[in-house]
Amino acid sequence: MDELTLTSWLLLSLGALTVGLAKTAVPGAGTLAVIFFASALPARESTAALLVLLIIGDLFAIWMYRRTVDWGILRRLVWPVLAGVAIGTFFLGVASDAMVRRVIGAILLGLLGVTMWRRRQAKVRLGRTAGYGFGWLGGFTTMVANAGGPVMSLYLLGMRLDVKTFLGTAAYFFFAINLIKVPFHVGLGLLNLEVLSIVVLLVPLVVLSAFAGRWMASRIPQRAFEILVLCFTAAGAVYLLL
């Protein structure tokens, strides 16, 4: 903690504020939190610090959107996501910070292209096979860089969910998956007391922005919501690649 500069704390604070908004209003904004944390801390340690804040944000989102959940989608994703987390754990143990960022950036850009193409086609929900593919990639990206949010946001957009059902389904999904990731981060030595001492100071900012996000979600039009998700995903992918 003593080595963190004022700029680092500012970036971490912005990241914490973004987490609350991403969980309760604009899921694609979660990519910005990844960027802020990776800019303030080493990439691998930043994933552990961000993970704790994401879980806190998940709890607030579950409470706020507990009545708007598509349980069928969640059941379909269980096994592919677990497979992705397992492979992501191995990759995180052997990959460099630069490789982690570029792989996730390339995945996000590829999925973004597919999503933009589909939006020009007939407005039908994604099929079961697509769910398996997105589930695997979501588990992998969330394990190696806490970047599963954009992947799953693109999937839920493809499922044509309204804003609150989107947010409720995403809340339960990421709460479960983030809890699963905790022992892996501990085992890799990334989640430790030093990281937690930083995180505890950022929790109030997550809580504050979560309530602000709830207010926003009840007022944002469906079309604007979808455009924001796509724009944040594109911005995050380009940053990770560069």
TrEMBL record:
InterPro entries: TM_pro_TauE-like (IPR002781), TSUP (IPR052017). It is a multi-pass membrane protein. It is found in: Cell membrane. Pfam families: TauE. The keyword Coiled coil does not apply. The chain crosses the membrane at residues 46-65, 77-94, 100-118, 165-184, 190-212, 224-241. Keywords: Cell membrane, Membrane, Transmembrane, Transmembrane helix, Transport. The keyword Transmembrane helix applies. Belongs to the 4-toluene sulfonate uptake permease (TSUP) (TC 2.A.102) family. PANTHER family: MEMBRANE TRANSPORTER PROTEIN YDHB-RELATED (PTHR30269:SF23), TRANSMEMBRANE PROTEIN YFCA (PTHR30269). This is Probable membrane transporter protein.
